[in-house]
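Quick entry between incubations.
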Amino acid sequence: MKSKVMVVEDNKQNMYMITYLLESYSYEVIQSFNGIDGIKKAKEEKPDIILLDIQLPEMDGYDIARELKKNEELRNIPIIAVTAYAMMGDKEKAMDAGVIGYIEKPIDPDTFVSQMEAFLPSHLVQRGKN
Amino acid sequence: MAKINKKEKIKSANNPPLSKIKLKSADEVSEFAENIINTVREPLLVLDKDLRVIKASRSFYDFFKVSSDETIGTLIYDLGNHQWNIPKLRELLETILPEKTTFDNYEVEHDFSTIGKRIMLLNARQIKRALGKEKIILLAIEDITDRKKSEDALKKAKEMAESADRLKSAFLATMSHELRTPLNSIIGFTGILLKELAGPLNEEQSKQLNMIKGSGQHLLELINDVLDISKVEAGELVVSLKPFNFSKSINKVISIVQPLANKKELKLRSNISPDINNIISDERRVEQVFLNILNNAIKFTERGFVEVNCETQNDQIITRITDTGIGIKKEDMEKLFKPFSQIDMGITRTRYGTGLGLSICKKLLEKLNGTISVESQFSVGSIFTVTLPINGE
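Done. Structure below.
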């Protein structure tokens, strides 16, 4: 069974890029373009890891992370922030909200997947490309 | 106070007191006083205890465009057809002065029918007359209308400049964020194509995609630099001081620039004193500074070496970055740390750069209580020296 990665990202091209990369490495991707939908889908799909954009309209990444951490069933899913260099200063704020890792934008296709896998329990890491 | 009195006493032992100066008659005394009053440039009024005018200076008549007939003997509030019935003046003369006997720089604003709206500073003194027990009041009037006007204009101009500056910084910050979003997808998709995840590329396709990637990365550096400098200028750049391993950071930066040096066949050497361990500073910013300086050193060196030396000296870590590059002309040294001042020389035009790097380094180091300086000899090389306090202060 493929490991499930949920991506919350409002920019369509970024979403396509991340999805393409992850699918190339045999991950199943659940896409969500905003926080409310993201929380709903997380409850339904129970992903193995969540990649979260921080700057989102209405509900930002911090709010989403806090909301996910409140839920008993979702609490243990690792949340990784995928965010621009400019926002890196807010590391503590993100950690307080329950984010355990950072991937800096622009993402580097050479390292992106392995950066994510570092936060994924080893039995869930997909081996090899599609 | 007692001290001053003592001094005066000593003085008066040698010199006769004012009252003993050879003014024989009351007329002479009066003339003497009048001369003094008329010499003062500021309008001056002398009032009796009932606030009637005893005397007015010539400057008073000139300034308020009134005659002595309508002034002398008149209650101050009735002056110039009751124009002087000013609440704030009443407060000064009737409430403040009886208690304090002197009061300086009391600001009164009033619209006079003869001379228009004026802002005045009043200095008031309540004096006991030498003979008898009656008190008189001296009222000096300084017109500060014009001064106030230019002060206000200056303040307004300053506020406008500051708000324009804030607007500029906010604009730059927003713009650079907005610019980065599409750029992320340009760089990302180029990278995916180069990884050949979407299929194999021929040689020419890889070459051109690499050019897109390089230009994209250069543009990203520019945007990040603009964002940094706008943050610095808006005073929004926050550093977080925490202990970290300094030599590890330096080695990390060296490993990042090593491929660049290899490409140009430059020797990249480092010599880090073994007593250097932890420093309290902002790790990310410190790495940013050294990455910038080392990148520059490699960028502007065609042959020879780039060397990094770190040592401790009196609670400071001193890092020297020496290169055998093109060097800096004396006249260009000053410009070096100013924004947008990549020194313009034919040869440097081919080099990527924002011209912001060193000015950001300087500002960052100021924030981190450090310094940056440079020694250079044109066409021989440069030495950049960075100092950072080990305990952060």
